[in-house]
TrEMBL record:
Keyword Signal listed: yes
Family: Belongs to the outer membrane factor (OMF) (TC 1.B.17) family.
Gene3D superfamilies assigned: Outer membrane efflux proteins (OEP) (1.20.1600.10)
InterPro entries for this protein: MdtP/NodT-like (IPR010131), OMP_efflux (IPR003423)
Record's signal peptide: 1-21
Pfam families, per database record: OEP
Name of the protein: TolC family protein
Keyword Signal: yes
GO MF term set: efflux transmembrane transporter activity
Entry keyword set: Signal
Species assigned in the record: Membranihabitans marinus
Taxonomic classification: Bacteria, Pseudomonadati, Bacteroidota, Saprospiria, Saprospirales
Length: 433
């Protein structure tokens, strides 16, 4: 048993025990991905396609069944018929069993020539490999979707925390201004403006909560969790400031993509399939042979007649020319598809690499102390505003700039994670952890 399967099994045991006591399930990223790989229904269904393809290989290797035919059986014999025959037909071993009864039977066996069974099995074997690559491609796509949801969920968590901090600060201001309004020290208009800002921030936080629940719903479906479970994903490493992308060779990434990407291997397998199909179609030019053996009792000049024969088509008109030509065209077509997929793959990897590098360059150009400086400046503006050193308009202008710059910082960090996952997806393997 692999480590992933063992870990997933242990997780399922622990989760089953915890779910009996409560409806809240707490997972980290690694645990949730292990559970997803084990329990996803789409992956389970796609695995069955591999078994179906393997079953088709078994079927292709089987010999055709012999055919048995029994005919010319007379259920009775009249005196007139016997008179014409001139004598009675003796029964078996001189007894009454089979007396005056004629019958015949024949056995036929189709013999496939030119290695058709072997070539058909080879053709179906390629289908097995294609089924495996279809599974790997589905796994690759679902894993990318799953990780993107986890990344988005953590981004929303960070954004919600920022909204909550802003909401707490604005609530303190509105409470203070409410007291000042009651004392007549400030106008009610300033209080209403702050209250409107509080409502606006609260709505933004509520919208984040709605999107968060939608993402959790998708994650639960991908992990096959009950709808009643309250899922919590613990945050893990969200950004490593020293992403090793600079140490990764771009040409090596392209080579790895050609080796690991299932969609590229599928294009190559299609070309192999077309070549095997051509071999099979060419074998169909050779006619199969049917071997025959027959027995006739009382219907020939011999009472007990054994006969042997052979039958085969004569390939005068149909020599499978059309299917052979179609297979040849399929080979040329598959070569073009492989080349197109190769060009697309190379351009996708190069674009993802450069996008990641630009995202890292943008983030590293930001002063590492800028985030803390923004918070410190906001605290200063808040104190000055409470002490009436600046106007409400000045405070709101800075608050808009503060919120926008905070969003830029979050987006810059989030963009790197997205670009890392995109590069890993396009290469087909986790080149950057």
């Amino acid at each position: 048993m692999s480590l992933v399967k063992l870990a997933a099994s242990l997780l399922l045991i622990m989760y089953s025990a915890s779910l009996t006591a409560q409806d809240t399930l707490v997972l980290n990223h690694s645990e949730s991905e292990a559970l997803f790989l084990k329990e996803n229904l789409l992956l389970m269904a796609e695995r069955l396609n591999i078994s179906q393809a393997e079953a088709r290989v078994v079927q292709a290797r089987l010999w055709p069944n012999p055919a048995l035919e029994i005919d010319e059986v007379n259920l009775w014999a009249t005196k007139r018929q016997l008179a014409v025959f001139g004598d009675e037909l003796q029964g078996f071993n001189g007894g009454r069993l089979g007396q005056n009864q004629q019958f015949g039977f024949s056995v036929e066996q189709l013999v496939m020539t030119a290695g058709k069974r072997k070539k058909l099995a080879a053709l179906e074997s390629v289908s097995v490999e294609q089924s495996r690559e279809f599974f790997e491609n589905l796994l690759r796509n679902l894993k990318y979707e799953f990780r993107s949801l986890l990344t988005r969920l953590h981004y929303l968590r960070l954004t919600a925390e920022a909204y909550q901090n802003q909401l707490n600060s604005v609530k303190q201001l509105t409470q203070s201004y409410h007291r000042q309004v009651e004392k007549g020290h400030v106008t009610k208009g300033e209080y209403v403006r702050l209250k409107a800002l509080e409502l606006e921030i609260g709505k933004g936080k509520n919208d984040l909560g709605i999107e968060t629940e939608k993402i959790k719903k998708e994650l639960k479906m991908m992990m096959r969790l009950p709808a009643s479970v309250q899922l919590t994903i613990e945050p893990e490493r969200y950004l490593n400031n020293e992403q090793p992308v600079g140490a990764v060779d771009l040409s090596e990434l392209i080579t790895q993509a050609k080796e690991f990407r299932p969609d590229f291997r599928l294009a190559q397998l299609d070309m192999a399939y077309q070549k095997r199909k051509l071999d099979y179609e060419q074998a169909l030019r050779v006619p199969d042979v049917t071997l025959k053996m027959g027995y006739d009792r009382g219907g020939n000049f011999m009472y007990n007649f054994f006969g042997f024969g052979v039958a085969m088509d004569i390939p005068v008109f149909d020599r499978n020319q059309g299917n052979i030509q179609q297979a040849r065209i399929g080979i040329e077509q598959s070569k073009l598809h492989v080349r197109q997929k190769e060009l697309s793959l190379e351009n996708e990897v190069v674009l993802a690499y450069h996008n990641l590098q630009q995202s890292i360059d943008f983030y590293t150009d930001i002063d590492p102390d800028f985030d803390e400086a923004l918070d410190a400046t906001l605290d200063g503006y808040t104190r000055n505003f409470l002490n009436r050193n600046i106007t409400l308009l000045e405070y709101l202008d800075f608050l808009d700039a503060y919120l926008e710059n905070k969003k830029i910082l979050r987006d810059a960090r989030h963009a790197i994670i997205e670009r890392v996952e995109e590069l890993n997806y396009l290469v087909g393997v986790d080149v950057i952890q």
